[in-house]
């Protein structure tokens, strides 16, 4: 697979990342440019045998200012995984949809829009609620989403439980008015 | 196409690419909401069905009743603090989460697990598979009106949970497979008690075969229900028994063998029907296969040896930067963990790939079209989906 990828590396402007998973011979990481992602994935699905989209997810690298999109595809004939990584600018999180290649990708994209605010123009039901209902804050899986601040703003603090001396309390409950005579 | 077997097809709107072209305002159609306490699943999930008479013409799934934000929580916890969290991602089958989380952490940290720990892990996973199937078959029979079978199998599941309790102290969440190995060795005389329980389970399974697979009602309703064409398998990311029931012989245990599965003798169970009946049959045979695998493991497991590798101080455990993906064959298909480490004490991202993610949403929406409304629950169980792993 490595040689096959090296042959198309200029055509799809891909870079093999050897430092990730160096000891695994069944997992390879490849970096792809944003405009070449869908042509490359189409090639993988139709001509290179990577017919199975395992998952599609995002990782927020806020310090470097990008989202890493990970398209994990699998080849059932060689049982090899290929992780196609795409660096997406956090300020402009728009990328082409792949639901026309794998229909179930639409669900992943719907979730990524909700959790990271990444736009996939044309993806079905992208802006429908998936897991969160009526969410109007920052997408919660972004690392700049302040979970503590959100819970302090949203939920009110509850008062603590009133504590009692159990023995005294039970005496009063069982024999009202007589407890002090004991 | 599912809808084609309906006799008076012209009464219903045309189906194009698995979707009905209906006009809700014509007055012929009715929207029905099933769920969130849906009979077809373990957990909460809703189906929004558009029906014409008693036939489903469109289905949409709604999740969001169980979101606990585990993936976010894990970003704020150290690796060892994530360990008691991961098992809760999928309630009826927690061990696969523990195993995959441990494997990812070990690979990134460069830790090798002793051989006996690998055998013990595989034994736990196989027992978990059997336990999960015992719960599923109750749902499958129950959704077609045979509630009694569920009573039998849940009893058997409880016996299996007793074994887990003895091994790990926990019945549902075992927290047994820990990064570095397993938490404890097997107790004295454990295998004989496992064998005793397996015999009980086998006896009940034989009864179930007579009661379920030879039942006219079950045959009539399940045969031809929700047929998965083999051409859909790759397109919709279908894995596990759902794919195997369509004649596609794929099993992660065999194809990308992990732990000690390459030392065991087994062949993936397949069928060609592709319908709910075939899926039920494949899973039912896999229960016998699981029993066989547990027996093989009990015979071949090394007698003694270390079951844990010493870890560095786990409270200040920095994992080298890297990314990895590990998969395992759970009862429903391919279960996977994608872990990204940035070199700190906290994981940068742990993404969970659950098979229900594809089966319960996109695939279910396609298969439900054309089904009878009374069979929707049975169809859903035959896909064997667990919403907890959709909304991690």
The main sheet of chain A orders its strands as 1-2-5-4-3
The secondary-structure class of chain A comes to alpha+beta
Q: What's the β-strand tally of chain B?
A: 10
Structural class of chain B: alpha+beta
Radius of gyration of chain A: 26 Å
Strand content of chain A: 15-25%
The total tally of domains of chain B equals 2
How far apart, in Å, are the first and last alpha carbons of chain A? 87 Å
Number of domains of chain A: 1
Radius of gyration of chain B: 22 Å
Tell me about this structure.
- The complex is a heterodimer of chains A (182) and B (392).
- Chain A contains five helices and five strands; from the N terminus they run H-E-E-H-E-E-E-H-H-H.
- Chain A has 182 residues and is α+β, with helices and mostly antiparallel strands.
- In chain A, strand 3 and strand 4 form a beta hairpin.
- Chain A is elongated and about 95 Å long.
- Chain B has two domains: 2-62, no CATH class; 70-354, Cytochrome-c3 Hydrogenase, chain B.
- Chain B is built from 13 helices and ten strands.
- Chain B has helices spanning 70-75, 79-86, 95-109, 115-142, 147-168, 190-213, 216-222, 230-235, 241-244, 252-255, 276-300, 356-367, 376-383; strands at 15-16, 19-20, 30-34, 46-52, 55-62, 177-178, 181-182, 322-330, 333-341, 347-353.
- The model of chain B has no long low-confidence stretch (mean pLDDT 87).
- The interface between A and B is large, with 38 and 36 residues.
């Amino acid at each position: 697979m490595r040689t096959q990828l090296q042959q198309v590396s200029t055509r799809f402007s891909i870079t093999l990342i050897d430092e990730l998973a160096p000891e695994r011979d069944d997992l390879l990481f490849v970096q792809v440019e944003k405009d070449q992602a869908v042509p490359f994935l189409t090639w993988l699905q139709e001509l290179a045998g990577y017919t199975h989209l395992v998952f599609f997810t995002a990782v927020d690298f806020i310090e470097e200012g990008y989202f890493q999109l990970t398209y994990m595809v699998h080849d059932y004939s060689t049982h090899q995984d290929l992780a196609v990584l795409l660096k997406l600018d956090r300020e402009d999180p728009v990328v082409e949809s792949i639901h026309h290649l794998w229909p179930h990708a639409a669900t992943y994209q719907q979730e990524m829009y909700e959790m990271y605010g990444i736009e996939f123009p044309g993806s079905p039901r992208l802006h429908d609620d998936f897991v969160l209902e009526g969410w109007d804050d920052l997408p919660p899986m972004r690392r700049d989403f302040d979970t503590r601040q959100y819970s302090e703003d949203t939920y009110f603090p509850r008062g603590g439980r009133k504590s009692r001396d159990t023995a005294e309390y039970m005496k009063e409950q069982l024999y009202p008015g007589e407890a002090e005579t004991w | 196409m599912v809808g084609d077997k309906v006799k008076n097809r012209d009464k219903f709107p045309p189906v194009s690419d698995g979707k009905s072209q209906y006009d809700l305002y014509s007055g012929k159609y009715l929207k029905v909401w099933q769920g969130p306490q849906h009979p077809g699943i373990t957990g909460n999930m809703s189906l929004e069905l558009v029906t014409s008479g008693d036939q489903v013409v469109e289905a949409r799934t709604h999740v969001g009743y169980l979101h606990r934000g585990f993936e976010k929580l894990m970003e704020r916890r150290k690796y060892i603090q994530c360990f008691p969290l991961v098992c809760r991602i999928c309630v009826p089958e927690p061990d696969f989460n523990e195993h995959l989380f441990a494997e990812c952490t070990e690979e990134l940290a460069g830790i090798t697990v002793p051989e006996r720990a690998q055998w013990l892990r595989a034994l736990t996973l196989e027992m978990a598979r059997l336990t999960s199937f015992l719960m599923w078959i109750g749902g499958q029979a129950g959704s077609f009106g045979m509630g009694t079978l569920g009573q039998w199998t849940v009893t058997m599941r409880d016996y299996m949970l007793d074994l887990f309790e003895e091994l790990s102290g926990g019945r549902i969440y075992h927290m047994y497979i820990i990064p570095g190995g397993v938490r404890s060795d097997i107790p004295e005389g454990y295998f004989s008690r496992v064998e005793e329980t397996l015999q009980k389970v086998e006896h009940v399974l034989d009864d179930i075969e007579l009661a379920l697979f030879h039942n006219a009602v079950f045959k009539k309703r399940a045969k031809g229900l929700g047929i998965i064409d083999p051409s859909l398998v790759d397109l919709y990311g279908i894995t596990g028994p759902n794919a195997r029931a369509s004649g596609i012989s794929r099993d992660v245990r065999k194809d990308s063998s992990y732990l000690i599965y390459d030392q065991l003798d087994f062949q993936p169970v397949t069928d060609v029907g592709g319908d709910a009946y075939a899926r039920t049959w494949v899973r039912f045979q896999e229960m016998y296969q699981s029993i066989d695998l547990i027996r093989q493991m009990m015979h071949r497991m090394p007698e003694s040896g270390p079951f844990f590798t010493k870890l560095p101080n786990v409270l200040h455990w920095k994992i080298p930067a890297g990314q990895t993906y590990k998969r395992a064959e759970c009862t429903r298909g391919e279960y996977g963990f994608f872990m990204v480490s940035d070199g700190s004490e906290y994981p940068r991202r742990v993404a969970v790939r659950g098979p229900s993610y594809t089966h319960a949403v996109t695939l279910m929406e396609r298969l439900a079209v054309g089904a009878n409304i009374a069979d929707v629950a049975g169809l859903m169980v035959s896909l064997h989906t667990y919403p907890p792993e959709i909304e991690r």
